[in-house]
Amino acid sequence: MDGQPSGSGEIRLVNVTKTFGDMDAVKSIDLVIPHGSYCCLVGPSGCGKTTILRMIAGHETPTSGEIHIGEQMVVGLKPVQRGTAMMFQSYALFPHLSVLDNVAFYLKMRDVAKAERRQRAREMLERVQLDHLAERMPAMLSGGQQQRVALARALITNPRVLLLDEPLSALDEFLRLRMRGELKSLQNELGITFVHVTHTQPEAIALADMVVVMDHGRIDQADTARHIFSRPATPYVARFMGGQNVLSGIVTETSGGVLAIADASGPTYAASASGTMPAVGTPMSFVVRRDRIALTKGASAAAGEVNAVNGRVIATEYQGTYVKVTLDVASREAFVANIGDDTYFADPLRVGDEVTARWATADVHVLERADTGAAIDPYAEDAA
Amino acid sequence: MSLPSQGRRPWTFYVLSVMFTLFVLFLYGPMFIMFILSFQGPTGGLVFPMRGFSFTWFEALFGQARTGDVGGAFSRSLPLALIVMVLTVLISVTAGFAFRRRFVGSGFLFYTAVASLIVPGLVLSIGILVTARFLGIPARWWFTGLGAHLSWTLPFGLLIMFAILGRLSPSYEEAAYDMGATRWQTVRHVVIPIVFPGMIAVALFGFTLSYDEFPRSWLTVGSLNTLPIEIWTMTTNVTSPALYALGTVTSAISFVAIGLAIGSIAYIQHRRSKRT
User: Fold this and answer.
1) What is the spatial distance between Cα A117 and Cα A108, in angstroms, rounded to a whole number?
2) Binning pLDDT at 50, 70 and 90, where does residue B9 land?
3) Residue B202 maps to a domain
4) Which one in A3, A214, A255, B85 has a CA-CA gap of 20 to 30 Å to B233?
5) Across residues B220-226, what is the average pLDDT?
6) Which residues lie below 8 Å from residue B127, measured CB to CB, with a gap of 6+?
7) Chain B residue closest to A152 (CA)?
8) Environment class of B130 (CB within 10 Å of its CB; exposed 0-12, middle 13-18, buried 19+)
9) Which residue of A109, A135, A139 is in closest CB contact with B179?
10) Residue range of the domain that includes B79
């Protein structure tokens, strides 16, 4: 439509670097986002996720590397030539134009006759159920309504890629969950590629077919939401996405696909591994999901017992369907067990109680990278 | 939101009220006295009491009496103020946009522009006259006078534009670019409409600062006076209420200019908040 590129919305970044001054915002990134997928770029502030989005959009030019959309190398092209449309964080609705004129802006820039562009803008507004507010000014709309206008304004360009920069961060919790659902169903309906930047892990998990976790200008892991959550690649991803306990030790034995790992502070762990076995003496990190931990009262872990740690309860937090129990286990990081509410309230714990945490070897997931001992990520405690 | 009531007002409230009333009287009292006295009867003088009520002195103002060339001065001051207004808006807006991106020497350029706020107007006036003489350029209100006025209005215009553009989020321009607008279309359909109230403020400053400028006009306008110089001359040789009539007329023109500016800003904001 309108002579702009159509076709595949597959995005390929090849060795992309972006430098601001002497700071690398994005370092040699390779990434393929499949056509028609919902991709979330997630990471803390300043990790480079917004820079990637803006480079795909054409609002920043990579210092080096190539960006392809479909068959096209798009570096140097204007957004409309790329077939991308962006929804800005604060929506950037033009304050001097009515909702209808905001949506019709793209058509006006292409000299589409007034009657036709108003007609098409009205159809787009109907699509986001805002046709009754067409004559309003943006300042008179609620946050959710503004977001829908911004969506309509972006979609009228008929893009093959929609880029969303923290689209839900300006909304209150209730609206955020509702708009999250609407974004997902819109993407299903349109079948175009959505790239969504967020710093909220649950948002990424809930929406994305593909989650890209970033840190300091690099991609730590790009995978399905399920894998990112339950099979993180690095200690950073595990901590950032939450829901995991990260433990470390030294490999002491490998036999029959099972690793024995010894923690310097005492406990020994077992983990099943596939592929090439690491050598004895290798530092190793692994994760155990918080909801796969069983607690028993009393410090009963015997010397030599695997996958059992003694600890002391330092906090309990009721979460509705489960209780989050935080333990001090004599390591540098708190250990968390999420206990189902029925199980927990059958025999509740108090702060200061001695307990033993146990888990099955099958629930251990070995990380590709050992914990380097770098500062524990402040986001680690954010997600349940 | 109002502060919680704390019972009786403290004595400081009354002291400060009196001080504020005196301040307002001091500020506007002389002006209103001048307004009243300009309607003095034909036999009245420069001071109270009023001897009747007439428009005599307004007529004298534009007649061929010995009151000086008020009409001529006005016919120079008004176009000068309008030219200064247009140039101030044009230069301040474009310079404001240039300063949004740091360029080589931008800091130096900014300080030189603002420095002319600090230089005493009379000194600047002498400097311009001497330079013009040296270059063999005769002093004219539309040339040397115009330059002197711009040295006064541009720093104000620039500072206002900085404040306005500082609040203009770059995402508006990016959104326009995202939707295929060219640079010129972005300026025309997005940037100008958004900063338009600010441009009116700059225009208002440009007009009023030029219209009543004395020190910078003094030596730079040449042999034909602008209105403030004409008024100053009259104070030394006119001893009739025609002087007050002139004050009333020029004040009225200033008020009309301010009213137009504020009115148009209010109109734009009204249109933005409620679609007509």
Assistant:
1) 7
2) confident
3) yes
4) B85
5) 82
6) none
7) B179
8) exposed
9) A109
10) 69-237
| Structure token pair of residue A232 | 């993180």
pLDDT score of A134 more than 50: yes
Question: Into how many domains does chain B fold?
Answer: 1
Q: How confident is the model at residue A75, as a pLDDT?
A: 92
pLDDT class of B138 with cuts at 50, 70, 90: confident
Picking from B174, B178, B275, the nearest residue to A135 by CB comes out as B275
- Beta carbons of A291 and A271 less than 8 angstroms apart: no
Residues near B86 by Cβ (< 8 Å), separated by ≥ 6? B203, B206
Cβ pair B190:A94 closer than 8 A:
yes
> Which residues make Cβ contacts (< 8 Å) with residue B161, sequence separation at least 6?
B92, B93, B95, B96, B195, B198, B202
**CB of B239 closer than 8 Å to CB of B40:** no
Residue ranges of alpha helices (H) inside chain B are 11-37, 56-62, 70-100, 106-115, 121-135, 146-166, 170-178, 183-186, 192-211, 227-237, 242-273
Name the interface residues of B facing A (CB cutoff 8 Å): 169, 171-172, 174-182, 185, 189-190, 193-194, 196, 272-275
Backbone angles phi, psi at B218, to 5 degrees: -40, -60
All domains of chain A, ordered by start, with CATH? 11-227 (3.40.50.300), 243-371 (2.40.50.100)
Task: Report the alpha-carbon distance of residue B68 to residue B73 in Å, rounded.
Answer: 9
